[in-house]
Amino acid sequence: MRPPQLRGLRVRLVVAFGLVAVLTAAATGTLTFREARTGILQQSQDAVIKQLRARVDRLAPALAFPPSESELRRFAVDVAAGEQSPARRVLAVYRDLSVTSVPGDPFEELTPALREAVRSRPFTAFQRVRDGGRASLVVGMPVTFAYPAEQGPHTSGVQVFLTVPLANEQSYVDALVTAVERATVPALALAVLLALLAARGVLRPVRALRHATRSIAEGRLDTRLTVDGSDELADLSRTFNETAAALETSVAELHDMEARARRFAADVSHELRTPLAAMSVITDVLDEGAARLDSETATAVQLISTETVKLTRLVDDLMEIARFDAGAAVLHLDEIDLAESVRRTLASRAWSQEVDARLPEPDVLRGRVDPRRLDVIVANLVGNALRHGARPVELRLSAERTGQETQAVIEVWDSGPGIPDTVLPHVFERFYKSDTARTRTEGSGLGLAITAENVHVHGGTIRAANHAAGGALFTVALPLRRHGDRSAGGPR
């Protein structure tokens, strides 16, 4: 996997500009080189052909026909002597007779194709050949006699071939290639510089947009971008500002609605406590005299008493949730024996015989926690297991060391059918019911939500799962603090 920085916009812009510069320089250099090379060779070729034609036209009239070998050799030598470079060589051919200006010269540059072209047509022909890394120009022409224009030229049967080395022209071409190569480096450097400048101009608003987006994600909804210009990036910045403003307005409205709902729930709960207290007193009196009432009246009294207890519990839970929502939940830490606290919780609710409690020995597991909130955590988890699971219910308390911190781990496991996979992600949500057809339950629907809040206010974690052997398993981890440790809890 490539490092993230190699996929950045800056690198891609620089690479793109570099590639464009290299391709442009290569294409321009190739075209320039081809045109310059063609011009150099064409100029040299035209000069050679012109000089050869003039020399042959001047010497041909003195040539006897049919020429002897010595006369033909002298003709070849005279034609070669007129050329400027001593490296130029001449081959003269008359029927089966071939002589060269240099004795013993094999004249290997002459190809059969060029020989046939000169033999079959009364025109000058040429060909560039390369032998052993050396380039040469070979020019061939027939020696003709001039006749009246209507009859055209008449060939004498003598053909002259001239080979000219192109060393000077090749040096010019090599120098041109070197110049093109040298020009590519500055072009590439200029392209990289332009790419860096362009990347800087593009990345500045992109980087600002990234920081602003991160700021929005962190909750600072008043973040805005400075809009400069009228290009696409400026339009993007304006769109971001409009979106952020709309989001800020929507969130503010939601917060206001949520705050009003919380105040309403808290106010209603608070107002209900007084009449509920009176109703509880009345139901207690009615319960005491229920034995003297007829069966129908006793049943009605029992129903009223039960529903009053449920309503009281619901109001208490709503008040507790309201305190968490208002950030008024405060930890009152005390160093206690956690095992003894759990035993008292079970005993006070007559659950000691219904729950298999596996607790450490006295004073083995101590820590600074809020005793009241620990009681709520244990009571809600065990009560939930007894109501919705099946016996036996097991409670295990143990210590677990994580790094430098020791945690108290509370596990409550029932033997029921477990929690459906679709329900597991929602078990700690308020008023969540796995069966929408059930409108009434024994609890308030807030027990596990309150449990989670009490765990979190301690700085702990809570999770729900299905045990491998069946049944639901709730696991709570609370950090243990010794006296003098700084508490992570407090008002929320």
From TrEMBL:
Residues 200-252 form the HAMP domain. Residues 267-482 form the Histidine kinase domain. PROSITE patterns: HAMP, HIS_KIN. Pfam families: HAMP (PF00672), HATPase_c (PF02518), HisKA (PF00512). It is an enzyme of class 2 (transferase). Signal peptide: none annotated. The keyword Kinase applies. This is histidine kinase. It comes from Streptomyces malaysiense.
